[in-house]
Structures are given as C-alpha cells and as structure tokens.
Amino acid sequence: MIEQNLSLLLVAIPLLAAPIVATLPRGKLPWLFTLSVSWVCLGLAIWQLWLVTDGRIISYELGGWAPPWGIEYRIDAVNAFVALIVAGIAAVALPYALRSVEQEIPLQQTPLFYTAFLLCLTGLLGITLTGDVFNLFVFLEISSLSSYALISMGRQRRALTAAYQYLIMGTIGATFLLIGIGLIYAETGSLNMMDLSVRLPATFEHRTIHTAFAFIVVGVGLKLAMFPLHVWLPNAYTYAPSVISVFLSATATKVAVYVMLRMVFTVFSGSFTQDTPTGNMFMVLGIGGVLVASVYAVYQRDAKRLLAYSSVAQVGYMVLGIAFGTALGLTATLVHMFNHALMKGALFMAIGALVYRLGSSQIDAFNGLGRQMPWTFAALFIAGLSLIGVPGTAGFISKWYLVLAALEKSNWIAAIVILAGSLFAVIYMWKLVEALFFRSAPQSDAAVKEAPLSLLVPMWLLVVANLYFGFNTQLTVGIAQTAVNILRALPQ
Length: 492
Hints:
Elements: H1 2-23, H2 29-52, E1 58-61, E2 72-75, H3 77-104, H4 110-129, H5 133-152, H6 158-188, H7 193-199, H8 207-223, H9 233-239, H10 242-267, H11 269-274, H12 278-298, H13 303-324, H14 327-358, H15 369-372, H16 374-388, H17 394-408, H18 412-438, H19 453-468, H20 476-489
Antiparallel strand pairs: 1-2
Helix pairs in contact: 1-2, 1-4, 2-3, 2-4, 3-4, 3-10, 3-14, 3-19, 3-20, 4-5, 4-10, 5-6, 6-8, 6-9, 7-10, 8-10, 9-10, 9-13, 10-13, 10-14, 12-13, 12-18, 13-14, 13-17, 13-18, 14-16, 14-17, 14-19, 14-20, 16-18, 16-19, 17-18
C-alpha cells in the first residue's frame, strides 16, 4: 500500500507545502522549506523509479473509484523516468536559488516566489504521474499559471512582456488540448489513458478522432515549443530569473515531450500514427526545428537567448525520435530528454553565475571573464561539449542513438540534419568561449570574482553528471529501453 501511495505523495507534498511557504516570514526560511520539500520529492522519485525498472506497473485509485470511472495514477518506467528528471532538477536548482534569488527577486516577494515554484513542481509531477487525460490538462494549467508568475518576476521590465506572451500562447495551447480531449470523450465516453487505448481503435475512421488528434498535437506542440510553435520560449527563458531559466529549460519541455509520447503511442497507439501522415509531419517539424533554431542561435547577442534557441533545436531532436517511431528512435528521445536536462541546466547555471557577477547576459559583457571565473568557464565549456555531442559526454549518447535510428530507417536527410545541428552548436557555443577566454577584458573594469560556492556546487554537480552519463548508460539507456518496450507493448 505504501508503494501505491508514492505517486500521490509526490504530488500532494509540494501542493500542500506551497500555501505553507506563502505564510512564512521573509528571509531564508521559505528557501530552506522549499529545498527540503524538493529533496523529499527526489527521494520518492528515485524509490518510485526503482520499483518499476523491471516493467512493473503501480496503480493508485483516487478516492477508491476504480478506473476508468475514477482518476487513476498509473506509474510505469516511462513516467517514473520523467518524474525523476523533474524532481532531480528541482533538487539541484534549489541550492542554486539561494544567492541567485536574493539578488534578482525583491525580499518581500521571495515567499511568493517559492510558493509559485512549488506549484510549478506540483503541476509538472502531476502531468507525469496521472493516467487520466483531463487530470493531465488540470496539472498542465497548474504548471503553466505558476510559470507565468515566475517568469514575470525577472529583473527586467521585459519579463512582464515575456510572461504575457507565454500566457497568450499557453492559453491557446491549453484550449486546443482541451478541445481535443473533449472530442475524444464525446466519441468514447472515457478519459482514462489505458481505457482509451482500447476504445479508440474502433473509432479511428471517424473524422472526429482525426480532428481531436490534430487539436491535441497543436496544443501539446505549443507547450513543448515545437517548431514553428516556439515563439514564446526565447523571451521566456531570456528574461526569467536565472534559476527559473534553469528549471524550466531542464524540465518543462521534457514533460511536454512526454505528454506527446503518451498521446501518440498510448492514447492513439502506434497503428493510428502509422496509417496517417503523422510521422512525416513530425519529421518535417523536427528537421525544421533543428536547422532554423540553430541558425537563429548563431546570430544571438544575448547568452540566455542563444541557449533558448538552442533548446528549440534540441526539442527538434526529440521530435525526430518520435517521427522515426522505432524502438531506437523512441529510446533516443527518452535518453535525450534526460541528457538535455543535464546539459542545458548546467549551461543556464553557468550563464546565471555570470549574470550574478555582471548583472547582464549580453555576450559582449563577458569579454575576458573566463580567466577571472575559471570554474564557471570550465563548467560552461564542458556542458557545451555535451550539447555539441562530443564523445565522452552525455550529449554524444543521445545523438548517437538518433543517428542510429535515422540510419535504421535509411533516412539520410535526418542523419545529415542531426550532424549539421551539432556543427551549428559548435559555432554558437564558440561565440561564448571566444568572448569568455579569447577576448581581453576592458582595462577600466575591476577584476571580477568567481561565483559563490552555492552557485558553483549545483552547477558542477550537473557537469559531472554530463561526464558520468557519457560513459555509464545503465540508467539512461537501460531505463529508456524498458520504457520503450512498455510503450510499444500497448495495444497497437
């Protein structure tokens, strides 16, 4: 019974903690309480994943109502893996938040900031754990609304514009998703994902189901910043507080990719996507995302915006894995979800450390700082190598599987695009390296100190993870393969 309660506790603990944090006095106490909650969630997520690594399924019936009539939390290796990403990044980002938030957020707003952070964590974990599509929509809105508030707290006035733009695009996406869910319910009378995977095949010829699928893909595509629905992401990541850029870049799009996987391969099943041009659509959008976003990244003068466009390109890689639809392709997508969280989290932490010392994320302002902040520069350099996909880093593993998946399908264009994306990554990461190490700092400026330990330790934890998972793939590839077997074993 305790094992079945895990999924409920993972959602209930941060949800109940959020209003408590709002009542705490200003200072470090809200941060300390939020940090403790995040570590508890990480422990529960690790335990949950360990329980399902052998293919076991954990089911929890809320209120004692048996599915499909009641809401079910259904845990397998797929969503337990994603829940670990969310909880792990939150647990690493909170120590980083102490000094960063003190500098960027007014003291009187810190309890509300951490309240919104916990609500965002609640929404993201709830999305991954629920087995009910309407409940998924509810948690998606919880995470989105709290994200809007968190982004708006950025130090620049443009943060309000970025949050408003995200609000508009997010609302459109949520509306499309809800319409799609409503059309499915009208045809089947069910909202449970596993029940829908059984009921929907009999209705695949109905135009209503095709319409529902289109609405869902567009709605989820907006949430995961799939090209060309990504226009909200660059401003959101650029003007959000540094720790929020870290957290959202490493978790929000990954959870949305998980939702797309669930909808395409669980709710609608592989047979529906094989009989429609869905695979070709994902292929075109994935290739477009990799190429267009990479080109945009090359021309950016703001480091956070550069990394934001890089994130759109990395989402393109994950979409390519979905487009392949094979075991190798889906394995590559799941592995890249994990590895990209590590690399992009480390990169945004490094940029956040530079912003902490300079107050600016403009690349020209970084001239010569690599020698004055060697630990920050080294972290950025190694995480950049992982983003490029250099052997010995986590990024190489996921791109290797993507290339193998492309070659398995004899899709030479996709393979070339994957390699081209890595070459573009060399160009835009070199812009940062050149400014930090090969340009001279202005003579009039005083020496800049290295970032404080509270920023360096979480940053280097992710950097070391990038190197470790570049060699030991038992957790990433092993669990991803188990997850893919579960996805592909569902009714087709």
